[in-house]
Write a structure and sequence with these properties.
The complex is a heterodimer of chains A (165) and B (264).
Chain A (H helix, E strand, L loop, with lengths): L3 E6 L2 E6 L7 H8 L18 E4 L2 E4 L12 E3 L12 H8 L9 H14 L6 H7 L10 H15 L4 H4 L1
Parallel strand pairs in A: 1-5
Antiparallel strand pairs in A: 1-2, 3-4, 3-5
Helix pairs in contact in A: 2-5
Chain B lengths: L4 E3 L4 H7 L5 E4 L5 H6 L7 E4 L9 E3 L4 E5 L4 H10 L3 H7 L5 H4 L4 H7 L6 H8 L2 E4 L3 E3 H4 E3 L2 E2 L7 E7 L3 E8 L6 E9 L4 E6 L7 E2 L1 H9 L24 H19 L1
Parallel strand pairs in B: 1-3, 2-3
Antiparallel strand pairs in B: 4-5, 5-10, 6-7, 6-10, 8-9, 11-12, 12-13, 13-14
Helix pairs in contact in B: 3-4
Protein name (chain A): Xanthine dehydrogenase YagT iron-sulfur-binding subunit
Keywords (chain A): 2Fe-2S, Iron, Iron-sulfur, Metal-binding, Oxidoreductase
GO molecular function, one term (chain A): metal ion binding
Chain lengths: 165, 264
C-alpha cells in the first residue's frame, strides 16, 4: 500500500497517495497536481524560487518531503488571487515593476506574503531586504521588489494611531 | 536521491524503534539532509522523520535558569522564545541562520546532530556549557562535539532536548560568507556570575572549540580590551577559498572582541 497524506491545498482538502517517498512538495505541486506556478530554480534551498506557505509560514518546497506534510495547510501562488481579484502583493508587484523575466516572482510574492504576515518588517526597506534575503532575483529587480513589499505592507496594514500622528 | 524507506513516528520511543534498522537515519527539518541526499552524498536505508513528534518541540525555562529547547524546535521559534525568556544572545544567533524559509524548517537538534564545522549553535552550546539530552542520556557540550560532522551520538540516538544555562549577558558575532551566511568564523560569548564562556565555530579543522585563554582573561575583566593582546595560532585553522588559516585565526580575535562589546 502506498503511503498517503491529507492536506489542505489552496483551501481545498486533498488526499494524496504517493508511490515514492522521495517526492518533494515542489515536485508534488508541479509534476503531480498540475500547479506549475511554483518554480524550480536551484532545487537545493538556495534561491527561494520554490517558496510556498506551509501553515502560513514560508518554506522552500524543494527541501520539504511531501510525506512530512500530513495535515498541513499549503498555499501556493495559484491560491492567492481570490475570486479573480489579485492579492495586494500581486498588485503591488505589477505596480512597481518588481520583476523582469518573472521566473523568481511566484517565490518572491509568496515570501512577501509570509513576511507581511510575520509583521516584523513594517515598511522599513532595510528590514524588508533582510526579510526577503532568501529569494534571489537574477534580473536584480530588488529595488522594485522592496518598493512593492513596502506598498503592499502599507495597503494591508491599517495605520496605527501613533503612526498617523 | 537514492531510494529509501520512510517512517513518520509520533513519539520518541517509536522513532528510536524505527531507527534500529541498519543505515536508518533521522530526518529533522531536512535543510541540510535533503540537499545532501539530492547530491547523492548519503544513502540511508530509511529516513525516520522527527517532524511529527510533538514531545520534542517547544522552549521553556527550568528551575535552574536554563533554557530547555526541544530538539525538534525550529530556529524561528527559538529566536522568538529566547528573547521572551531573557536570552537575547541566542535570539541574535538563531535569527541569522540561513534565511527565513530555512529558519521555519531547520531544527536545533538537526544542527547539533549534524555538527557542521561552520554551524552556529555549537558555539552557543560550548560557551554556555549546555547539556545535550538524548533519548537515552545527557551529554555535556564539552564531551559532545568530536570534530567535523562527528559527535558523541550513537547510531539511532536522537537529541530530544538542549538545556542551555541562561547567561547574564551574551552575544554572538559571525563573519558571514555572504552567499551561504555560514560563518567564516563565529564567536559566542556568555558571561555568568562566576565564569565567562567563549565558543568558536567555523574556524578550526577540529570543529567548534572553547577559547579558554580568552575565557580566563574575560573572567577577571569582561571588556574587549581584556582580549586585545590574545591570539589563537593559525595552526589547525581551516583554509579554503574564502579565507586562509591566518585570516581565520585573526578573525577569532576580532569576532571575540566584537561579541564582548555587543554583550555589554
Amino acid at each position: 500500500m502506498s503511503p498517503s497524506i491529507s492536506l489542505t491545498l489552496n483551501g481545498e482538502a486533498r488526499d494524496i497517495a504517493l508511490d515514492d517517498p522521495r517526492v518533494t512538495l515542489l515536485d508534488l505541486l508541479r509534476e503531480r497536481l498540475a500547479l506549475p506556478g511554483t518554480k524550480k530554480g536551484c532545487d537545493r534551498g538556495q534561491c527561494g524560487a520554490c517558496t510556498v506557505l506551509v501553515n502560513g509560514r514560508r518554506v522552500n518546497s524543494c527541501l520539504t518531503l511531501a510525506l512530512t506534510l500530513d495535515g498541513a495547510e499549503i498555499t501556493t501562488i495559484e491560491g492567492l488571487a481570490a475570486d479573480g481579484t489579485l492579492h495586494p502583493v500581486q498588485e503591488a508587484f505589477i505596480e512597481n515593476d518588481a520583476f523582469q523575466c518573472g521566473y523568481c516572482t511566484p517565490g518572491q510574492i509568496m515570501s512577501a506574503v509570509g513576511l507581511i504576515a510575520e509583521g516584523r518588517a513594517g515598511d522599513d526597506p532595510e528590514r524588508i531586504r533582510e526579510g526577503m534575503s532568501g529569494n534571489i532575483c537574477r534580473c536584480v529587480a530588488y529595488h522594485g521588489i522592496t518598493l512593492a513589499v513596502q506598498d503592499a505592507t502599507r495597503s494591508m496594514t491599517p495605520l496605527k494611531k501613533e503612526d498617523a500622528a | 536521491m537514492y531510494n529509501f524507506d520512510f517512517e513518520r513516528p509520533k513519539s520518541v520511543a517509536d522513532a528510536v524503534k524505527a531507527l534500529q534498522t541498519e543505515e536508518a537515519q533521522p530526518l529533522g527539518g531536512g535543510q541540510t539532509l535533503i540537499p545532501t541526499l539530492k547530491q547523492r552524498l548519503a544513502m540511508p536505508s530509511k529516513l525516520v522523520s522527527l517532524a511529527g513528534i510533538d514531545e520534542i518541540k517547544g522552549v521553556c525555562k527550568d528551575d535552574q535558569n536554563r533554557l530547555c529547547i526541544g530538539g525538534g524546535t525550529v530556529h524561528r521559534v527559538i529566536a522568538e522564545k529566547a528573547m521572551s525568556e531573557g536570552f537575547p544572545g541566542l535570539t541574535g544567533l538563531a535569527s541569522k541562520i540561513g534565511d527565513p524559509a530555512v529558519r521555519n524548517r531547520g531544527t536545533i537538534g538537526g544542527s547539533l546532530a549534524n555538527n557542521d564545522p561552520s554551524a552556529c549553535y555549537p558555539a552557543a552550546a560550548m560557551a554556555t556549557g549546555a547539556t545535550i539530552v538524548t533519548d537515552r542520556r545527557e551529554i555535556a557540550a564539552d564531551d559532545y562535539f568530536k570534530g567535523l560532522f562527528e559527535t558523541a551520538l550513537e547510531e539511532g540516538e536522537i537529541i530530544t532536548e538542549v538545556k542551555m544555562p541562561i547567561p547574564e549577558a551574551s552575544a554572538y558575532m559571525k563573519f558571514e560568507q555572504p552567499a551561504s551566511r555560514f560563518p567564516l568564523v563565529g564567536v559566542f560569548v556568555a558571561r555568568f556570575s562566576d565564569r565567562v564562556g567563549v565558543g568558536v565555530t567555523g574556524a578550526s579543522e577540529s570543529g567548534v572549540f572553547r577559547w579558554t585563554e580568552a575565557e580566563r582573561a574575560l573572567g577577571s575583566d569582561f571588556s574587549a580590551d581584556a582580549v586585545k593582546g590574545l591570539s589563537v595560532p593559525a595552526d589547525g585553522m581551516i583554509s579554503d577559498l574564502h579565507g586562509t588559516a591566518e585570516y581565520r585565526a585573526h578573525l577569532v580575535g576580532v569576532m571575540t572582541r566584537r561579541a564582548v562589546a555587543a554583550a555589554q
